[in-house]
Each structure stands twice: as structure tokens, then as C-alpha cells.
Write a structure and sequence with these properties.
This protein is mainly alpha-helical and 105 residues long. 55% of the residues lie in helices and 0% in strands. It has four helices and no strands. It is elongated and about 65 Å long.
Length: 105
């Protein structure tokens, strides 16, 4: 009976490793730097869906906190016209039913 249980565990571990391979670089350690896109597993998704999913898996910080955006606006790094344009675009997309990803971010 334990032989059957070990075989089941082995199959689960193998399946887990195969799934994990999709999210980690496929090459071994290299002597020289070579860029590897760690987000390649998400490139088929809509941008916001991809970054938020990657955030959940890898713990990436993908957006600023609201207070950070307010400070950037106060400092003039974010212009009022950019906010107005974003609101108009998002509202237009919602009204026309165009999905922009992740619950209309």
C-alpha cells in the first residue's frame, strides 16, 4: 500500500515541477549576463491581468499606493490633463463594453 502512495506523491511532485517550469527561467546559471523576461508566462494576457497575476505569484509591487499618486500630483509630476484623459478613456471603455483588464483598473 505504501508503494502506491509513494507513486501518487511522485506523480504530484512531477506535475508540480512541470507547472513551475512555466514560471522560472529555463537556462542554467550563465557566466555572462543575459536578459531573461521573467514575465514571459504572462505575455498572452491583457496587461493589467498579467501584472496583477504576476504580483500574486511573485510578490511584485506593480502599482503605487494612492498616497504616492497624490504626492506626485501635488509635485506636478502627474498633470491634471492626464487624469482627465484617463477618466474619459476609462468611462468610454466602460460605456462601450471594451474590457481593459482586471475589473476596469
Amino acid at each position: 500500500m505504501s508503494g502506491n502512495r509513494n507513486k501518487h506523491i511522485s506523480v504530484n511532485v512531477h506535475h508540480f515541477i512541470q507547472e513551475l517550469k512555466h514560471y522560472v527561467p529555463s537556462q542554467k546559471t550563465l557566466k555572462d549576463f543575459i536578459h531573461h523576461n521573467t514575465l514571459h508566462a504572462f505575455q498572452h494576457k491583457k496587461f493589467f491581468d498579467a501584472i496583477f497575476e504576476a504580483s500574486e505569484i511573485f510578490g511584485y509591487k506593480v502599482t503605487l499606493q494612492l498616497e504616492d499618486y497624490r504626492e506626485l500630483f501635488r509635485l506636478g509630476r502627474i498633470q491634471e490633463y492626464a487624469i482627465e484623459r484617463a477618466i474619459i478613456t476609462q468611462n468610454r471603455d466602460i460605456v462601450t463594453g471594451k474590457q481593459i483588464g482586471r475589473a476596469h483598473v
